[in-house]
User: Fold Substrate-binding domain-containing protein from Paraburkholderia agricolaris.
Amino acid sequence: MAFTRAHHPLHGARRFLRLTLAASLCSLCCTAGIASASPASPETDVFPPWQHGENNDSLDRGLEFTVPQVDVLADFHGNLSSPKLVLFVGGNYFFAMAPLVAQFEKDNPEYRGRIFWETIPPGLLVKQMKAGGTITVGNMTWTVKPDAYFAGLAKVKELIADGTLTAPAVPYVTNQLTIMVRRDNPQHVTSLKDLARPGLRLAMPNPEFEGVSRQIKASLVKAGGDALEKVVYEDKVRDGSTVLTQIHHRQTALFLMQDRADAGVLWKSEALFQEQIGHPLAHVDIPADENTTAIYAGALVNGAPHRQAARQWLSFIQSPAAFQIFQRYGFGKYEPASGPSMQ
Assistant:
């Protein structure tokens, strides 16, 4: 099994389910070394947000106040005052949204500085939509109505069927799974079967609202049958050696860097991003016969306030310019003919 690290640099107590998200995530983790509101030092760079403000298209940002570990809204982007387009995007590609938005605004300058987007897990975005667009993070509550929603194709079709979204579903890229580990792979994880190893600490997406868990379970069954899936998602959860994340695209990387976990399964694009920005992380490839491919899709939200803007984004997301951005992080091109073999 290949142990892989990316070599190219970056281009340019209530339950956690209450959506305290990034700020509360950090307070759950390491309490040492409170940072100031000035730019993060190398020691605090492991804490979200990881893109130094790039995932915010606001033209006037006023007072800059971001304190890693204690005051961070890492998965909420832009200005809520008067957006012309609101996107609810499953967090699996939060890192790609800054260049995507920049390209879209270049092509459609009337939207410059007027896009708001969220990148919490798809299941939580659905809960927010069912709550009328209202969400509470820490001590802040706001309401925003989304124009378009993006997740796995199966989830998008399900939400079209129940009337939450409006057809058609618009598929655009694919992704595959990998095992994220610390740099140099100190626990010598080489395969999905190794995840059953006693004492190996895992960070795994929560099946309750993180759609990737469905693909992960399918791959575990391919690699080691129902027994492997049971060990990882039941036995090790009971004994505490598997921690179920609330927002895996933030927690898995952070828990590994804090030595709270030894491995975690997630999308390969997420691992590549972490390696590209220089975090001490790496990934272990999963062979094709054990891997599972996801199709990413989006659709217009029923009752969207900015329907035309949403249609423009849905058209853009399928464009060659958008795919060039996705390709930086290892996403594949969606080919309709190959759809039936995908999850």
In short: The chain has two domains: 13-172+297-341, 175-285. The longest strand covers residues 165-182.
